[in-house]
Protein 1
Amino acid sequence: MIEFQNVHKTYRVAGRDIPALHPTNLSVEDGQVFGLIGHSGAGKSTLLRLINRLEAPSGGKIIVDGEDVTAFNANHLRRFRQQVGMIFQHFNLLASKTVADNVALPLTLAGELSRKEIDARVSELLARVGLSEHAKKYPAQLSGGQKQRVGIARALATKPKILLCDEATSALDPQTTASVLQLLAEINRELKLTIVLITHEMDVIRRVCDRVAVMDAGKIVEEGPVADVFLHPQHPTTKRFVQEDEQIDENEQRDDFAHVPGRIVRLTFQGDSTYAPLLGTVARETGVDYSILAGRIDRIKDTPYGQLTLAVTGGDMEAAFARFTAADVHMEVLR
Amino acid sequence: MDALSFFANVDWAEIWLATIDTMIMLFGSLLFTVLLGLPLGVLLFLCGPRQLFEQKGVYALLSFVVNVLRSLPFIILLIVMIPFTVLITGTSLGVAGAIPPLVVGATPFFARLVETALREVDRGIIEATQSMGATTRQIIMNALLPEARPGIFAAITVTAITLVSYTAMAGVVGAGGLGDLAIRFGYQRFQTDVMVVTVVLLLILVQVLQSVGDKLVVHFSRK
């Protein structure tokens, strides 16, 4: 478990103190995929680097598996870092070393295994990320997605308990992003690895994370299970991220719906209720009519969800709303 | 007068000896320049602004010494160095007497080039290596130097070529070599033929150094 207790970080730039992270409390459970989302400069990168102390906190305690990371001496910190893998937006592979040597680097640095054991571990890791036939190539000969796979294999070399992902998919195209995220999800499942990732794309959070924290101006402004935060965003920053992901412009939508008659409601289905034939049943029983104005049916990690915006006319409208609320559906009246 | 008779008076044995002297001075001083300049360059880099061991005072001092040595004309350095040269080689004359001033003249230059080559290494590489739990020594040996290798080979090439022109000046202290031959015979005795031969040989030497250097840079760039 990773725990932040009143952790804050201030940079001193040209004689002035610039707060990068306001006092923050946070806990990440073992085996969780924890997402931090925020725009650039929101402090998410600082927060991530505090975990393996690439950044030193200005105050507060960071407890990992019961040990206070902030109290480690240099030696202890090095051993701790070997237990925390990290991958990067620009991969940060050594151009002068082959794929196999890049993956072997953390093991060579740790100096605990023989050359033979390292070779065996490297081939196992390269097979894991599907790059066995590229072992002798140099990073410049690989595509972006392949480079990130090398980065992942390298980060896993020392069998860490925690994996930190610094905008790991931001430099990749959508298709490659999907395959890298899938690999991260597999690793999380199979190796029971705790993953902390930072991103500015809600889509990344939606695909792989269990919990999410939304950051704005050095503060966590909203935190919770991804489904809750994603489907019922509270803070303006969160709402903006969700809208960006769904490519919805609220003003445009309001104008579009202006001439639509009746009441407008938004229904959110989650889990099994997503596939229940609720709309038809309610319409028949209460005599209301509905038209679907907007909608989306998708998945949040492994949970299906649906979100429909309806215009409801005629019949017993109050009864219909009561039925929706009674069912396992979240209803929001927009007009 | 055909081409061959133009070179009829050239003493080829003398040319041969001078070429050997130039080679010894060049590679002897290059070896010591790299041995001393590489650690100095690494130190400059590490102490520099926003680097691993940022040390404003140390950096300013090293930087100042390097700048002073670099701004001194080599011909002056040759003379200023004489007592020191005698102290370490026992003589201020000949090839042995030329190597210490050559090394002192080229090392600061080479160290600056090494510093620049190291700065070219992406900071992300250092961060990634740190995140693996590397010691500073490991970061230098396993990440910084391998990544900067193309730049360091380019720096060695430029330094070697600079040393070729420095060896020519070393004739002042009786060091011998091709440059010395060109001055004594070609210039002072008006033997244009010797001048042409030495200049052509120096030209070939520089060409060979540059193309070998370029090949090494390309080889280690891994692009």
Note: Chain A has a mean pLDDT of 92.
Protein 2
Amino acid sequence: MMEAVVVKDLSKVYDKDKTAVDAVSFSVEQGEIFGLIGPDGAGKTSIFRMLTTLLLPDGGSATVDGFDVVKDYKQIRSRVGYMPGKFSLYQDLTVEENLNFFAVIFNTTVQENYHLIKDIYMQLEPFKTRRAGKLSGGMKQKLALCCALIHKPSVLFLDEPTTGVDPVSRKEFWEMLKKLKAQNISIVVSTPYMDEANLCDHIALIQSGKILSVDSPANIVRSYPEDLYAIKAENMRSLLKALHQYNEVLDSYAFGEYAHVAFKDKHPDLSKIRTYLEQQGVNGTDLKKTEVTIEDSFIKLLKN
Amino acid sequence: MRTIRFLLQKEFRQIFRNRAILAMVIVMPVIQLLILPMAANYEVKNINIAIIDNDHSSYSQKLISKITSSGYFKLTGYNFSFKEAFRLIETDDADLILEIPRGFERNLVRENGQKIFIAVNAINGTKANLGGVYLTGIIKDFNGEVRLQLVPPAKFDRTLSIDIASSNWFNPFLDYHVFMVPGILAILVTMVGGFLAALNIVKEKEVGTIEQINVTPIKKHHFILGKLIPFWVLGNVVFTLGLIVAWLIYRIIPVGNIFLLYSFVSVYLLAVLGFGLLISTFCETQQQAMFIMFFFMMVFILMGGLFTSIDSMPDWAKAVSQFNPVSYLIEVMRMIILKGSGFKDILRQLGIIALFAVVFNGWAIFNYKKTS
């Protein structure tokens, strides 16, 4: 099966010395959801803009649907859908007008590919005469997705589609992506949210323009080398300080209301640790083994 | 074609939903045409004059009443010494001092001649210049009258003199409205067209919609045409409104062919819109576009021959004006509206403007890149 996107040593340097994307390589299989996971400023948007032919790469190569992003940009433009991170539809046109407009400039009609957007558009239908600028954040995202889909793209690029969207809408949005995947549309999505990583088939963890790891979320979690423990205490700060000073601890960091700890010993003596913490004056501890998450893997990769 | 039609539909929708643009296109030109020609008047009236009459004769009285009744001068001082009169100049209460010497009437009658003294405050150059000229004219006129009284007509033939009688063509009463209105209309058309075009593409950049447009297979020239045509139509609307105001308020009816006028403006609008689009392809924000456009507009307007005649500019400035599209429009507007010039007369200007249109638009299309 041909790959939807192949990226090889792709680089982008701004102002001669600011490397935004540093020799990035990955490939996206047809009909899968591929996630670019990384914090703000990691270079996700630059990669998207190069893949959608908006930005010329400074090194390396990339193909989308078999077409080169530099040479065959014309073919790419008519077969990808792009949803930029910033809402970029015409705010002074209505929902319907925006959709019609994008259908026309892709030389198609709304009717022709209505089946693709039907599920999403039905929720927008009651507001179709409302101007896009007056829609709620979640509605705007749905409209943008409709506009990006209207020409039946083979690859869909979604740059941080759920940033600034409420949790319910985010969940809905991912449901929609799953349905699109079922239509054999390849989807490349970027997100700063680690919880969304599990919803992708493959993810690339990216930081400062470099890819730290590319694999399926399950494999990334599985390759985490140590067992991970979660500890809770009344006083988080003194707990972290105590863990930090403890020479049996390999790594420790705050993780929500818990602290995640990895120990040097494969089978650590938990009672010994509890006693140590009590000696240090850390009271009310609750220590248990925990599941490794993508976020833990990411933190681990970042520290290496 | 279908793409262009939809692009146009979209642009017009956006324009009609933006009240500020509509106001800018319709209300602003009308108001400016109502106010500016009234204010921008070259005629110098109300020149303040201080007179020192040392003679107090009937002739000096006659001269003074002739000056004050001319309508140009306002007698703000009737003084007894130059020092006193000069104080008025210093306090800006007088622009001119006329000193009539003692024995003015006697010497005029007996010795056939007399000198009088005029001092002009030249801080306001135009006013000083025109005031001096007007006053000299009045005195000359007075001189003629006096001669007619004193010298028997039979002897008249003995002195040779050239008498100049002038008549003003195309604007017989030297009405400044007639002169200013076509020029101001030219500037309005330029401003509305240029600014709207310059700000429009930049707005798409600023809002981010251009990102979405750029990933589509839309052709560059389609996109640019979609921007050009709506503003071209708006420019013609402004021009028509201006002509209506000129006709209703100033009774200016184009002497020449109105279709020729519209043809020229149509080509001209293409050039100005192309210029606006070109600027917008260089800018990232509306603020940048606004300032750059403003800079060029100032140069275009001040060197366009509306306020100061291009003929009286230094050679380098004349050369610069060759590249100023506004100067051609002002020229042609005056030619067709006031003089009734025909197609052949404006052929040169039309050719140059058409060249501007091709260059600006071509450059804009070339410079608008969908990939950065």
Note: The mean pLDDT of chain B is 86.
